């Protein structure tokens, strides 16, 4: 915190090996020029609890260890941080966070309506993939409901389990080209999504059409721990 206080014009910062702040901060440090923040460590949430960053547009959190209180702490600290900053985030990347469930991720996404790039990736224990809540939530709803993350252009979701056949490709179709315009969302420029288990022949067929139309990226299909890619 002292370094940030001494650097009032700093625009970008990366913190590594973050440990629990003891005693916890009693007030938030406001830094008005920092627009890019990366944090690596087991206690990234303690950094969020200590800061107010009204100019932040790029946030990258990498959790190096999975600890027992971590899921609850993230589900509280990150939404509080986004609300406190009236989030103008354009890019959000959360890595090594497989303990957080899909609905909690959707609540976090809803607090960052200006996102253009979203990455959600699991931790080293691949037995704890996400469920399909983020994919379902990103499918634009019928009016008058407003779509989630309407400005999203880049999307990466790592190891999504339980997504029914065709649901993922349908969401991508609804956010691509003319259909995206009709749904009042930005057209996706690049996607990478890993689907775990289940049958996805409809996704594969639909994605071949989207690739032919110019969509960039990949959907990767995991089945019984064997990797196959269209």
Describe this structure in words.
This protein is of the alpha/beta class and 230 residues long. 30% of the residues lie in helices and 25% in strands. It is built from eight helices and eleven strands. It has helices at 2-5, 44-50, 70-84, 102-110, 133-138, 167-174, 177-182, 201-213; strands at 12-18, 29-30, 36-41, 51-52, 58-62, 91-95, 117-120, 154-161, 190-196, 216-223, 226-229. Strands 1-3-5-6-7-8-9-10-11 form a nine-stranded mixed β-sheet. The protein has a two-stranded parallel ribbon with strand order 2-4. Strand 9, helix 8 (201-213) and strand 10 form a beta-alpha-beta unit. It starts with a helix and ends with a strand. The model is unreliable at 224-230 (pLDDT under 50).
Question: What is this structure's SSE topology?
Answer:
Layout: H1 2-5, E1 12-18, E2 29-30, E3 36-41, H2 44-50, E4 51-52, E5 58-62, H3 70-84, E6 91-95, H4 102-110, E7 117-120, H5 133-138, E8 154-161, H6 167-174, H7 177-182, E9 190-196, H8 201-213, E10 216-223, E11 226-229
Parallel strand pairs: 1-3, 2-4, 3-5, 5-6, 6-7, 7-8, 8-9, 9-10
Antiparallel strand pairs: 10-11
Helix pairs in contact: 2-3, 3-4, 6-8
The succession of helices and strands, N to C, reads HEEEHEEHEHEHEHHEHEE
**In order across it, which strands form the biggest sheet?**
1-3-5-6-7-8-9-10-11
How would you characterize the largest beta sheet? 9 strands, mixed
Distance between the termini: 47 Å
Stretches with pLDDT under 50, minimum 5 residues: 224-230
